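ok trying again, last paste got cut off:
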Amino acid sequence: MSRADRLAERVAERGLDAVLVTDLVNLRYLTGFTGTNGLALVGRDGLRRFVTDFRYVGRAESEVAGPWERITGERDLLGDVRAALPGGPVTLGFDDAGVSVQTHAKLAAALGEDVALVPAGGLVEAGRMVKDEAELEAIAAAARLADDALRTTLEAGIAGQTERDVAFELETEMRRRGAEPSFPSIVAAGVHGDQPHAEPGDSPIARDVLVTIDWGARVGGYCSDCTRTFATGTEVAADALAVYALVQRAQAVALEAIHAGVTGREADQAARALIEGAGHGEHFGHGLGHGVGLEVHEEPRLSKAGETPLAAGHVVTVEPGVYVPGRHGVRIEDLVVVTPDGTRILSSLSKDLTVVA
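nice, full thing came through this time. structure:
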């Protein structure tokens, strides 16, 4: 069954005649279209219509195949939606999480009184959570490329370089290999590591400190995401080493707890309980992880509020961290595929504390 057919089933379950897909990531997932102006309509009775403007007709011909009827519209595509829908009264779902109030008003005016707009956010995302084999291979390829790029970057050493220079070299290595970074790389050394989303700075990286590097690549549209914390010498402070050991244990416990059927909250709690028991509960302020795919942050969420049961084929990060204000921070993150009885880890770098000169 195609992705569009599965979406059509969810549309029918919601009692809708059709759904309007305008989010470009969802549009790529459904149709393969990589341009920047397009929309799709999916509904009952085989409705599969894709609309773009003149600039992307050639691209659509090469990317949008299968069941899709391609339509060329005006640059502002909202005015073409009504003509692409069946005649008569239509109940049309829209992404209420991604459509602005202004766009909704404009769309409603263009559709007229016989089209009822109904909030239907998350219909496409529900299908995106479980990856097929082609998606899993693309994500695995991104993880392999990102790991190779970091290995090459570390060969030159990091002590004495600025965080910004290390991040630049890492992202350059990914581009040399044919990828783009899936997000701006984080390089956070010493006390700067107490910020989970630190931006690389211009101070030289000192010796005998911990350095957290969070990076990822995008290959074929699919993302990777990984974090490792390194040492720049053998004389790292004892309290920093103790935090590293704690986070390493918490990450291992979380991986052991994850399998199909476990909720994101339960996975999060497995790591959080250990960190809280060690007296660092207040220093672990983010969730355990998140889904990864066409976006680097997507559903499902592994957090205190994560009630979605994990399923085989979900790809998630497992990334506990401890951030001690004014001292240091540690995060260890793997990218994993959820399996019926556990996980398949896509990240390949060692999680033992590695000294990088």
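cool. The domain at 3-128 is CATH 3.40.350.10 (Creatine Amidinohydrolase; Chain A, domain 1). DSSP finds ten helices and 19 strands in the chain.
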